[in-house]
Amino acid sequence: MPTIRDLVAAIRRRDGIDAAVVLGRDGLLIDHQADASVDAESVAAHVPSILQYAEDLGASADRGHLLTAVIEYRSGSAVIAAMSADAFLLVLVRPTADLGALLFDLRRHRANIAALV
Question: How do residues 35-76 score in pLDDT, each as one tens digit?
Protein backbone atom coordinates (compact mmCIF):
# COMPACT_ATOMS: atom_id res chain seq x y z
CA MET A 1 0.00 0.00 0.00
CA PRO A 2 1.40 3.42 -0.94
CA THR A 3 2.16 5.95 1.80
CA ILE A 4 2.00 9.72 2.04
CA ARG A 5 5.75 9.75 1.44
CA ASP A 6 5.20 7.81 -1.82
CA LEU A 7 2.55 10.31 -2.91
CA VAL A 8 4.81 13.27 -2.19
CA ALA A 9 7.71 11.64 -4.06
CA ALA A 10 5.52 10.80 -7.08
CA ILE A 11 4.21 14.35 -7.37
CA ARG A 12 7.66 15.83 -6.86
CA ARG A 13 9.07 13.73 -9.73
CA ARG A 14 6.70 15.37 -12.22
CA ASP A 15 8.26 17.95 -14.52
CA GLY A 16 7.87 21.52 -13.33
CA ILE A 17 7.09 20.81 -9.68
CA ASP A 18 9.04 22.85 -7.13
CA ALA A 19 7.41 21.39 -4.02
CA ALA A 20 4.87 18.86 -2.83
CA VAL A 21 3.76 19.45 0.75
CA VAL A 22 1.25 17.57 2.87
CA LEU A 23 0.11 19.65 5.81
CA GLY A 24 -2.51 19.73 8.49
CA ARG A 25 -5.33 22.25 8.67
CA ASP A 26 -3.18 24.02 11.29
CA GLY A 27 -0.37 24.58 8.75
CA LEU A 28 2.05 22.10 10.30
CA LEU A 29 4.03 19.87 7.94
CA ILE A 30 3.14 16.19 7.70
CA ASP A 31 5.55 15.39 4.86
CA HIS A 32 7.20 17.28 2.02
CA GLN A 33 9.79 17.34 -0.72
CA ALA A 34 10.89 20.67 -2.14
CA ASP A 35 13.63 22.47 -4.01
CA ALA A 36 16.25 24.02 -1.76
CA SER A 37 14.84 27.46 -2.64
CA VAL A 38 11.45 26.61 -1.07
CA ASP A 39 10.98 26.95 2.69
CA ALA A 40 8.22 24.34 3.02
CA GLU A 41 7.52 25.15 6.66
CA SER A 42 7.02 28.85 5.93
CA VAL A 43 4.88 28.18 2.86
CA ALA A 44 2.70 25.67 4.75
CA ALA A 45 2.15 28.17 7.56
CA HIS A 46 0.32 30.49 5.12
CA VAL A 47 -2.13 27.88 3.86
CA PRO A 48 -4.62 27.91 6.79
CA SER A 49 -5.58 31.55 6.24
CA ILE A 50 -6.05 30.90 2.51
CA LEU A 51 -8.22 27.89 3.34
CA GLN A 52 -10.36 29.90 5.74
CA TYR A 53 -11.15 32.56 3.14
CA ALA A 54 -11.71 29.99 0.41
CA GLU A 55 -14.10 28.04 2.65
CA ASP A 56 -15.95 31.27 3.53
CA LEU A 57 -16.29 32.09 -0.16
CA GLY A 58 -17.59 28.59 -0.89
CA ALA A 59 -20.16 28.87 1.88
CA SER A 60 -21.30 32.35 0.76
CA ALA A 61 -21.59 31.19 -2.85
CA ASP A 62 -23.34 27.96 -1.80
CA ARG A 63 -20.57 25.83 -3.37
CA GLY A 64 -19.80 23.55 -0.42
CA HIS A 65 -16.42 22.57 0.96
CA LEU A 66 -13.20 23.37 -0.83
CA LEU A 67 -11.78 20.52 -2.90
CA THR A 68 -9.06 22.25 -4.92
CA ALA A 69 -7.79 25.81 -5.20
CA VAL A 70 -5.41 27.07 -7.87
CA ILE A 71 -3.65 30.37 -7.32
CA GLU A 72 -1.67 31.69 -10.27
CA TYR A 73 1.34 33.95 -9.76
CA ARG A 74 3.73 35.55 -12.22
CA SER A 75 6.36 32.83 -11.58
CA GLY A 76 4.10 29.80 -11.23
CA SER A 77 1.06 28.46 -9.44
CA ALA A 78 0.10 27.05 -6.09
CA VAL A 79 -2.40 24.19 -5.98
CA ILE A 80 -4.08 23.36 -2.69
CA ALA A 81 -6.10 20.13 -2.64
CA ALA A 82 -8.11 18.74 0.24
CA MET A 83 -6.99 15.22 1.14
CA SER A 84 -9.32 14.92 4.13
CA ALA A 85 -11.05 17.27 6.55
CA ASP A 86 -7.74 17.78 8.35
CA ALA A 87 -5.00 17.32 5.72
CA PHE A 88 -4.17 19.20 2.54
CA LEU A 89 -1.75 18.84 -0.32
CA LEU A 90 0.09 21.94 -1.53
CA VAL A 91 1.90 21.73 -4.85
CA LEU A 92 4.07 24.57 -6.12
CA VAL A 93 4.16 24.48 -9.90
CA ARG A 94 6.41 26.28 -12.40
CA PRO A 95 4.76 27.98 -15.40
CA THR A 96 6.24 25.30 -17.69
CA ALA A 97 4.51 22.41 -15.89
CA ASP A 98 1.43 20.66 -17.23
CA LEU A 99 -1.01 22.08 -14.70
CA GLY A 100 -4.01 20.53 -16.42
CA ALA A 101 -2.63 17.02 -16.12
CA LEU A 102 -1.79 17.58 -12.44
CA LEU A 103 -5.32 18.83 -11.70
CA PHE A 104 -6.84 15.93 -13.63
CA ASP A 105 -4.76 13.39 -11.70
CA LEU A 106 -5.57 14.99 -8.34
CA ARG A 107 -9.28 14.86 -9.14
CA ARG A 108 -9.17 11.34 -10.56
CA HIS A 109 -7.20 9.94 -7.62
CA ARG A 110 -8.80 12.04 -4.85
CA ALA A 111 -10.30 9.00 -3.06
CA ASN A 112 -7.02 7.08 -3.19
CA ILE A 113 -5.12 10.11 -1.91
CA ALA A 114 -7.61 10.61 0.91
CA ALA A 115 -7.13 6.98 1.97
CA LEU A 116 -3.46 7.73 2.69
CA VAL A 117 -4.29 10.15 5.48
Answer: 999 999 999 999 999 999 999 999 999 999 999 999 999 999
Starting at the edge strand found earlier in the chain, the sheet holding 76-82 runs: 29-34, 17-24, 87-93, 76-82, 68-73
Give residue 117's Cα distance to chain centre.
Answer: 14
User: For position 54, what pLDDT does the model report?
Assistant: 94
Quote the number of domains for the chain. 1
CATH number, domain with residue 81: 3.30.450.30
Q: Please, where are the H alpha helices in the chain?
A: 4-12, 40-60, 99-108, 110-115
Q: Quick one: how far is CA 58 from the chain centroid?
A: 18
pTM of the model: 0.93
Is the pLDDT at 1 greater than 90? The verdict is no
Which domain covers residue 111, as residue numbers?
4-115
Task: Pick the closest to residue 69 from 91, 84, 85, 43 (CA basis).
Answer: 91
